[in-house]
Specification:
The chain is mainly α and 344 residues long. It has two domains: 107 residues, no CATH class; 228 residues, MetI-like (MetI-like fold), CATH 1.10.3720. Helix content is 72%, strand content 0%. The protein has 15 helices and no strands. Helix 5 crosses helix 9, helix 7 packs across helix 8 and helix 9 crosses helix 11. It starts with a helix and ends in a 7-residue tail after the last helix.
Length: 344
């Protein structure tokens, strides 16, 4: 086991390096880099309007700019050095857990992540746990009642919920429950008078604001898990050891949750890393935008649009590392769930 963990840990380094190298190379060919973005914003500010100009490998936004000023801007962003030197410098910073400093927000990337993390944690934790707390029991119930009216109706509802995009559902929830009925707030994670509320009122206010975004994210997210749980249980229920357990006089509850559940967990655990990482960092961009929630998804999107490379690469480094560690933990859970699994 120790040898396996050591090998997987060592393999994380080249994997992380490959992800960063590929992203860094791609960013070198993306039109409209940080220097051009800065010049376009400065030009728009001076003229009182306008936006970022078209891109290209050459900085067309630099036309008419004093060469010395242009060199100062490039030096400010570190573009006065060759690409390989900038990449090596970035790797050195990441090795010291220094994710750099944002070009446009004048803050450390770590500070930006800490500021946005509460929103992503709120969305991710609720989405992940509610999805699995609903999907796994629902999948077990569907497997036990396979072919019944309950199974057919719930399958239809699950597929309909899965087919509706979370963003479309969020718009509908906002229009109906936020606009027409005015039961829930339209934006934000807390009210403007949050600091003046007591602890009980804060909890109620927080749950009041988070209800619609969570419904929009959860409805379709547990469909795959529910169907996977059902199929895994159906496969295990048909095996010989289940008949033996029933012949010994065990109750149906003991057979399902003590014997079948443990053996059916392996395919369910396989989806943990993707579901966990996706709920926290990948699936909330549109929901954050719709409900005006300033989280990591919105931060990543805006950093890509503004070519804020330190934020793009810093968050990518962090998310990739978290994903690799989570994948390792899920593999180790195989041994905990099924002792027959041997990594040797």
């Amino acid at each position: 086991m120790f040898t396996y963990i050591l090998k997987r840990t060592l393999l994380m380094l080249p994997t992380l390096l490959g992800v960063l190298l590929l992203t860094f190379v791609v960013l070198q060919f993306v039109p409209g880099g940080p220097v051009e973005q800065y010049l376009a914003e400065a030009k728009a500010g001076a003229s009182g309007g306008g936006g970022a100009e078209g891109g290209g490998l050459a900085y067309r936004g630099a036309q008419g700019v004093d060469p010395k000023r242009l060199e100062q801007i490039k030096q400010l962003y570190g573009f006065d050095k060759p690409a390989h030197e900038r990449f090596a410098q970035m790797l050195g910073q990441f090795a010291r857990f220094d994710l750099g400093r944002s070009f446009f927000q004048n803050k450390d990337v770590w500070q930006l992540i800490r500021e946005k993390l509460p929103v992503s944690i709120s969305l991710g934790m609720w989405t992940f746990f509610i999805s699995y707390l609903v999907a796994v029991p629902l999948g077990v119930a569907k497997a036990v009642r396979a072919g019944s009216r309950f199974d057919l109706v719930t399958t239809l509802l699950i597929l309909v919920g899965y087919a509706i995009p979370g963003f479309v559902l969020g718009v509908a929830l906002l229009v109906v429950f936020g606009g027409q009925l005015q039961w829930f707030p339209l934006r934000g994670l807390t009210s403007s008078n949050w600091d003046e509320l007591g602890w009980g009122a804060r909890i109620v206010d927080y749950l009041w604001h988070i209800t619609l975004p969570i419904i929009a994210m959860v409805l379709g997210s547990f469909a795959v898990t529910a169907m996977l749980t059902k199929n895994a249980f159906l496969e295990e229920i048909r095996k010989q050891y289940v008949l033996t357990a029933r012949a010994k006089g065990l109750s149906e509850r003991q057979v399902l949750w003590k014997h079948v559940f443990r053996n059916a967990l392996i395919p369910i655990i396989t989806g943990f890393p993707a579901a966990f990482i996706g709920a926290f960092f990948a699936g909330s961009l549109l929901i954050e935008t719709l409900f005006s929630l300033d989280g990591l998804g919105l931060l990543s999107y805006e950093s890509v649009i503004r070519r804020d490379y330190p934020v793009v690469l810093g968050t990518l480094d962090l998310f990739t590392l978290i994903g690799l560690v989570t994948k390792l933990v899920s593999d180790l859970c195989y041994v905990w769930v099924d002792p027959r699994v041997k990594f040797d």
